[in-house]
Amino acid sequence: MLIKTLVENTSIHDSVQPAHGLSFYIETNGHKILFDLGPDDSFEKNAAYLGVDISSVDVVVISHGHADHGGGLKRFFELNERAMVYVQKQAFEKHFSRRSAAEIKFIGLDKALSENKRIVFVEQQASIGDSLKIFADVSDGQGLPTDNKSLFMEGSQGVEPDDFIHEQNLVICENDRKVLFLGCAHKGILNILARFYELYGRYPDDVLGGFHLYSQSRHTGEPPEKIRQLSELLKEMNSQFYTCHCTGTEPYQLMKTYMSGQINYLAAGSQLLL
Length: 274
Hints:
- This protein is of the alpha/beta class.
- It has one domain (2-203): Ribonuclease Z/Hydroxyacylglutathione hydrolase-like (Metallo-beta-lactamase, Chain A), CATH 3.60.15.
- The chain is 20% helix and 30% strand.
- It is built from six helices and 20 strands.
- Strands 8-5-4-3-2-1-20 form a seven-stranded mixed sheet. The chain has a seven-stranded mixed sheet with strand order 9-10-13-14-15-18-19, covered by helices on one side. Strands 7-6-11-12 form a four-stranded antiparallel sheet, with no helix packed on it.
- Strand 11 and strand 12 form a beta hairpin.
């Protein structure tokens, strides 16, 4: 399995454009996949540099309904005429971020794109062939990221706290290996891993994505003690972790002191062979 990070907040060198968001290109035995599309056309520019042919992609999975993960969708449809795009059915509802007491910003997807015939609306779980699985039915049992309190959606009573039922995760099963991809872990990284364990009877071999330990808009991270506790729990799972984006570079560095080689960071331009 070949993985190339097309979009991330940072980059490994000047030839790759950083952008606040996330996009992974994943090449398996049977598929060429984009997991998330970043905030704009950054994925296109970086794909060209990294030797990725966007027109050959056959599956797209958008992790949740925020623009930093699905803002490139319009451009993707212009570049690719074949791939189906899998999203939770609530992903195109209106989503907001509260930047201050006086400012609330729309951060959702372009609803007009939901009419495209290549959009596949997922209800909690889905399978794409034998090797690709999607799940979204994650409980809140072990706590949620603090920054979720600043994120909202349009509900029946107006703007209300986001419940993140629009967030989904991708599992790729290949050569007896199970690899978990997640966007921002708004439902909580421990909760997502607990649901994975319920589904598969073990933890994933590898986990890639953001853990939402840092708020880019508010420039604040989770308390160091919470990060230490999380790191100790993740270590016990014996998975390999590759994090990025909303984990934040400072929380990552702290996790690295506890987890050592069990965790690494994927900046834009990174390539990984599993």
